[in-house]
Amino acid sequence: MNAYKEKMRTRMNLVSFAAAGAALIFAGLMLYRDHLPVLPSFIKGFHIGAFIGFEVVAAWYLGKCMRARKNDTEMKKLYIAENDERTGLIFRNASTLGMSIVLIGLGVAAIVSGFFNANVFFTLMGSLIFVLIVFYTLLIYYARKL
Amino acid sequence: MKTRIAELRKQQKLSQEELGLAVGVTRQTITSLEIGKYMASLQLAYKIAKYFGLTIEEVFDFSDMEEL
Fold it and tell me: A77 in contact with B at a CB cutoff of 8 Å?
């Protein structure tokens, strides 16, 4: 459990750092808003929503970790929730199927879009290649590791 | 896979949550094991059997396991 406590402390530091970094970046972008290209209001709303969402989730997660660190039973429950073997299997199965659907979906969408718009085609093809590179890199990594 | 987990747990008047906490899994995993939806890993099977002071074969029924 001590190793998990240490891992949690590192994770809390990283989340705090990311939350502070995101706040600084967002504040900076807001200050220089006049120098940035004019965007549709939906994109601005999406940016604000994503930033607020991230900060709320980070604060919630940090609060949960801080409460767990004060109580050993809560800490054990959190450890179990994170390391439960059935939950791990559920995630692995969902990820495998999800990855197949994403790859097939991107491939089909790229082919279909190629008949209508070159920009959309190259964007989808780039995404497909990126996902494939990430997937095969991880596949090779785990094949060597396990 | 059939198991005697529910029977042994009730004998000892344990809740699923308490057993889960003792062997390091969630209550949902204990439920799935009891109703035979999920097959435990070797490590978990060992922990559960050890918790009840029995062998793995005494807790888990391997008779309906498919042979290759």
Answer: yes
Residues of chain B under the 70 pLDDT cut:
none
Domain boundaries, chain A: 2-83, 86-145
Cβ contact, residue pair B38, A84, below 8 Å? no
The ranges assigned to domains in chain B are 2-59
Contact predicate A80/B25, CB 8 Å: yes
Q: Which chain B positions have a beta carbon within 8 Å of A86's beta carbon?
A: 25-26, 28-29, 32, 38
Task: For residues B29 and B17, give the distance between their C-alpha atoms in angstroms, rounded to a whole number.
Answer: 10
Which stretches of chain A drop beneath a pLDDT of 70? none
CA dist A43 and A65 (Å) reads 33
**Domain B2-59 annotated CATH 1.10.10.10:** no
